[in-house]
Amino acid sequence: MDFGRCAGRRLALAAGLGLTPVAGADLPNSGIFRPYIADHLVYDDNLFRLANWVNPNTVLGPGMSKWDVVNQFTAGGHIDIPVSRQTFLLNLRLDDNRFANNKDLDNLSTDDMANWKWKLGRTLSGNSDMGMSDSLLLSLIPNFFLRT
Predict the structure, then answer these.
(1) Please, what's the b/e burial string for 52-81 (b: 16 or more CB within 10 A of its CB; e: otherwise)?
(2) What would the mean pLDDT of 99-110 be, rounded to a whole number?
(3) Alpha helix (H) ranges present in the chain?
(4) What is the pLDDT of residue 86?
(5) Residue 133: Cβ within 10 Å count
(6) pLDDT tens, 7-22?
(7) Does the pLDDT value for residue 58 go beyond 70?
(8) 29 pLDDT band (50/70/90 cuts)?
(9) What is the pTM of this model?
(10) Contacts 24+ apart (CB under 8 A), 7-12
(11) How far apart are alpha carbons 37 and 40 in whole angstroms?
(12) In the chain, how many domains are there?
């Protein structure tokens, strides 16, 4: 794992915390912007949830390890913009996932959602949603491996 790069990210994280309002910033027209950043370091001694009797080299192949340290840097934000009788909501998230032993699993993932709440007159209203998720989901808690 490139710990120099991780240290650089943590420095950027600390600098960003000084510039990022905790309660959220007001946008024009009383909108709200709530950015967030996080950095997680997780150790997992059985990343692929293999039984103890299974030889990891035969199942995973050469160069893969049963255990790993995962560094996940996350940045995102919630944006709420009211326009007249409408409201636009955005939830954006980007994750940079880096594995110390299993470099083939390094990935960028995103989980985004847009919502439009609208009203027309006194009787018509609606809600339109759109979402996008792109990730290599290797869950560290549940017992499954899924690529979406």
Answers:
(1) eeeeeeeebeeebebebebbbbbbbbbbbb
(2) 92
(3) 3-19, 56-60
(4) 92
(5) 12
(6) 444 444 434 443 344 4
(7) yes
(8) low
(9) 0.67
(10) 9/39, 9/73, 9/96, 10/39
(11) 10
(12) 1
CA distance 118 to 128: 8
Rounded Cα distance between 124 and 119, Å, is 6
Would you tell me how many other CB atoms lie within 10 Å of the CB of residue 147?
8
The closest of 24, 29, 25, 26 to 87, measured between CA atoms, is 29
Residue 145 in this model has a pLDDT that exceeds 50? no
**Domain that residue 56 falls in:** 3-147
Cβ proximity of 88 and 128 under 8 Å: no
Query: Strand 86-99's sheet: what is its strand order?
Result: 25-27, 31-44, 68-83, 86-99, 107-120, 124-134
- Return mean pLDDT, the chain: 78
- Under 8 Å between Cβ of 81 and 27: yes
Which amino acid does the sequence have at 58? T
Cβ neighbours around 90 below 10 Å, total: 15
CA–CA distance, 44 with 9 (Å, rounded to integer): 22
Strands 107-120, 25-27: pairing is: unpaired
